[in-house]
Design goal:
Chains A, B: GO terms for molecular function: ATP binding; phosphofructokinase activity. Chains A, B: This is Sugar kinase. Chains A, B: Keywords: ATP-binding, Kinase, Nucleotide-binding, Transferase. The structure is a homodimer. By secondary structure, chain A is an alpha/beta fold. Chain A has one domain (about 1-10, about 35-85, about 105-310): Ribokinase (UDP-N-acetylmuramoyl-L-alanine:D-glutamate ligase, 3-Layer(aba) Sandwich). Helices cover about 40% and strands about 25% of the residues of chain A. Chain A contains 10 helices and 16 strands. In chain A, the strands form 2 sheets. In chain A, strands 1, 5, 6, 7, 10, 11, 12, 13, 14, 15 and 16 form an 11-stranded mixed sheet that branches. In chain A, strands 4-2-8-9 form a 4-stranded mixed sheet. In chain A, helix 5 (about 165-175) links the parallel strand 11 and strand 12 (about 180). The two termini of chain A are about 35 Å apart. The relative contact order of chain A is 0.13. The interface of A and B includes residues 62, 66, 91, 95 and 100 of A.
């Protein structure tokens, strides 16, 4: 199985209103809730493509209970560790124009709760083919949390993927994760400077992260697909045409494919093809954590991967 | 004791953000939750002025559990009846400019749940000195719900106050509640036409509601205080100067005072003085359901009530 870690899991709530007008009162016509957080989205995608997966992380309070109910409803195997504080919500207010987001702060985590989580992680990782560490860290979790978990996975000879940014990602690199999957903005959060734009710029930033410890760096470039700096060389993979839809969760779908590639030691070209196809199939599906199965089957036959000579 | 009824209870949530900008994502710096709904606010005020009170109504699901926790934390006696569906939240996003509100729809209520509530109400009303029926009706509750409850109270010789609007208020009038407390907008929701503005216009609308069945009509006029059409004559009561602060909950504080006046059969001038003072003391307190005790003590000594000759 694949293990996903979501330390800052959330209840994702969507309010539909006619038109958002500041300083006015709105009647919400519908309220939709789902379990969220990047690692949960990865687990949702793997569950849909029938890849055995267990979702762990930290949840607490009444919001944590609601997250667990939603995981059960989506048939995602749940091995979350309880914390005392209430889990966060993310609220999206959707109107005719677009979406307005409100991110609650995550629950504070105590040292004892973190220790309990590390013990749980060690046990689950022992029986995993790959571990995925995704998203931000709640208050109270050490800044080098991902480094600690990557080190445990390495001791157990289990490959690891980190999808994070800023200090959480930078600290993780010290423990030499097998793969990291930053977007351009997240690359810049570690290398400094402005976000890289061209393939050459992205590959240079990716190589900088490899120098700092990452085994491979798979950089996501939105509708332009993926660029990968790996021990076997550099690659570029892109869908034949831009897919329209909801880009939320596209990065998480790519991570799901990368985790499966790591778990079965698939070569880079096949793994990257799968990652681009699954990512585009997530864009084509209406909700984060969902993939359009037809689009996935169609795309993975026609995506091409090219070697990039630096 | 006084009994308050909140059929559409809510978890009132306040998000603080720097500046609300549509189509952007915001980090929420603080999340504050409290039990809400007009009847709950009345119970909170009565609890603060040490008047024995029990809050009943309908709550359900995980949000209902959170409402009950907040009631317990505020030491408000809770006799809510459970429903299967999840209670609603009201969300206020507060920024530097002001407040933006999002009202979730209430939970649907089944016929069996409504019957269970009516039975609970009858039992509680038997031992009450006054009953307060406040706020909107959730889906599934009959449109004449307040008329049914007022009729039960009348059979038990317990006086009743209704604070509602539109069809819920109009239907309640048929059962002859002892007092209704509309604001200008709520008066117009029954009489039709534009909201009455001057004292003469408000009194005319109030008399129209008395003709339709209300024993007395106490109309709230914001910072201008109250105008009352009663069997003993018409009155006007106003604070000596406008109180600055948060007007949310000022009407509920006035209802709390009216309920106490009914419970102890205090005469109209004293009851109206108390209602204006408690309402202004609620404006002076930062949160809905709270009153500023010092302001209350100061104001109730200096408010004057005048008889209005029509």
């Amino acid at each position: 199985m694949i293990l996903t870690v979501t330390l800052n899991a959330a209840l994702d709530v969507t309010y539909r209103v006619d038109e958002l007008r500041p300083q006015q009162t709105h009647r919400v016509s519908s309220v939709v809730t789902r379990a969220g957080g990047k690692g949960v989205n990865v687990a949702a995608v793997l569950t849909q493509i029938r890849e055995p997966v267990v979702a762990t992380g930290l949840v607490g309070g009444p919001t944590g209970e609601q997250i667990r109910h939603r995981l059960a409803a989506a048939r995602i195997a749940d091995s979350f560790v309880p914390v005392a504080a209430d889990s966060r919500r993310t609220l999206v207010v959707a109107d005719r124009t677009g979406a307005t987001g409100f991110w609650e702060p995550g629950p504070p985590v105590t040292a004892e709760e973190w220790s309990a989580f590390v013990a749980r992680f060690r046990g689950l990782a022992t029986v995993s083919r790959a571990v995925v560490l995704s998203g931000s860290l709640p208050a109270g979790v050490p800044a080098d949390a991902y480094a600690e978990l990557v080190t445990i996975a390495r001791e157990l000879a289990v490959p690891s993927i980190v999808d994070a940014e800023g200090t959480a990602l930078a600290a993780a690199l010290d423990a030499r994760p097998d793969v990291v999957k930053p977007n351009a903005h997240e690359l810049a959060s570690v290398t400094g400077g402005t976000a890289p734009d061209t393939v050459t710029e992205v590959l240079a930033a990716a190589e900088a992260l490899r120098t700092r410890g990452a085994g491979a760096v798979v950089a996501s470039r939105g509708a332009d697909g993926l660029v990968a700096a790996t021990p076997d060389g550099a690659y570029r993979a892109a869908p034949p045409a831009a897919v329209t839809g909801n880009p939320t969760g596209a990065g998480d779908a790519a991570v799901a494919a990368l985790a499966r590639g790591l778990a079965y030691r698939t070569g880079w070209p096949a793994t990257l093809t799968d990652a681009v196809a699954l990512s585009a199939a997530a864009v084509a599906a209406p909700e984060a954590g969902q993939v359009d199965g037809r689009e996935y089957d169609r795309l993975r036959k026609i995506i091409t991967v090219e070697t990039v000579t630096e």
